Amino acid sequence: MNFWEYLGNRHQQLLIDTYQHASVVFQCMVAATAIGVLIGVATYRSDWAGSLATTTTSTLLTIPSLAMIGLLIPIVGLGVPPTVIALTLYGLLPIVRNSIVGLRGVDPALVDAATGIGMSRVARLARVELPLAWPPILTGIRVSTQMLMGIAAIAAYASGPGLGNLIFRGIASLGSSNALNQVLAGTLLIILLALLFDAGYVLIGRLTISRGIRA
User: Fold this and answer.
1) Where are its TM segments located (predicted)?
2) What is the pLDDT of residues 128-152, one digit of tens each?
3) Rounded to two decimals, what is the model's pTM?
């Protein structure tokens, strides 16, 4: 069968795989964003702490995805756990780095003004520094999401959810009638998800970043 017939016959399974892929990336990005921003907040005031955080997350990103998942399998088993842990770790670097850069880039005069009107450190962080640092943080989230869309496909190696299973099945059965259709469908759907997520982030940016900051 041709590619379009394959899509028509397998659309239900394709939708399930697409949903699982989007779901695992979204959940891992929520976790990576929370952890990454917390690390940024904890380290941006210190040069050595910021460098340590950036270096550590950079080192994690240099570990090949297959090796990372393979190392996690004996510890947490197959399926969702190694997928979530690996994707969350891989998503940290852009968020940590951009959180530190964004927070350090806040105008000290604005922080001093907030201090002068009696804001506590937590209030300054929540109401002044983080909102002003949000544009670079959002950029880091967008970069991480694009990376994780592709890396999530490797999770099929550990029986993880998502479109990677479709790609792996196609590669394993090269020469069969539907092998190329499986690989092509999985790849195109991952690209489509990446574009949809990025469009969502553009919308979030328009809704959460004031025009003055965008300018």
Assistant:
1) 21-45, 65-93, 148-171, 183-204
2) 899 999 999 999 999 999 999 999 9
3) 0.90
